[in-house]
């Protein structure tokens, strides 16, 4: 099991997938998962991408098989980003393509803005607007998780996450998968990172950016998504059919295909 000591309080679990021709030099892709997930969430993307790119799929601190965080851990975007930078440094990867889903797309936008020398391209899949929700919504979200549990919250919210067309057995798998998250880690994360304001970061993104969403995403309308996407030069918006907001989970193959097309055009930039 690949694990890297990132900091005194963090052993980060990660997986590297690479099935490229050994005589060719391949770009790396860092994949940042969403809340209550792990690097395993990218399973539907790996077969299409790993033939052409070196995929790095970490478990964020507090999630998956990485070290859990205490309830009062002082979460910040910079701490999370620095974890990923330390991992990529340990792997000897200086510059890479970055892909983020859901809150991973929020982290990814801040990452690309704050470390432009490291990020070749950015892809954001099913991610919320730069600023979201008020303090009351945030408090209710944390209270629900602490009082009723992550599985209750996941089950209540899964219809919007995966949409009407997703198979029932798949819905149940995602509920159980997300419910395995450490409670203290999730409560602290949801109270802070999950409601980050990255408005100032979006305007600073300089690398090419691909944004993936669905026609009826519950996170934001296509028009609302386009409003922040167009603030980034050299950016593109791909809108897939459907009503899920976790498009990375419901449409992995169309997403991966769109990413491959995007990277073919920008890898050498």
Can you walk me through this structure?
This protein has one domain (3-131, 197-266): Rossmann fold (3-Layer(aba) Sandwich). It has 11 helices and 8 strands. It has helices spanning 46-49, 77-90, 103-114, 135-148, 150-162, 168-179, 183-191, 199-202, 222-229, 247-250, 252-266; strands spanning 3-7, 10-17, 28-32, 54-58, 96-101, 119-125, 209-214, 235-240. Strands 1-2-4-3-5-6-7-8 form an 8-stranded mixed beta sheet, sandwiched between helices. The protein is globular and about 55 Å long.
- Uncertain parts: none
Task: Please identify, by name, the CATH architecture.
Answer: 3-Layer(aba) Sandwich
The tally of strands reads 8
Strand order of the largest sheet: 1-2-4-3-5-6-7-8
Question: Do you know the CATH topology?
Answer: Rossmann fold
Keywords:
269 residues, Rossmann fold, 11 helices, 18% strand
Task: Please give a quick description of this structure.
The chain is an alpha/beta fold. It is built from eleven helices and eight strands. An eight-stranded mixed sheet has the order 1-2-4-3-5-6-7-8, with helices on both faces.
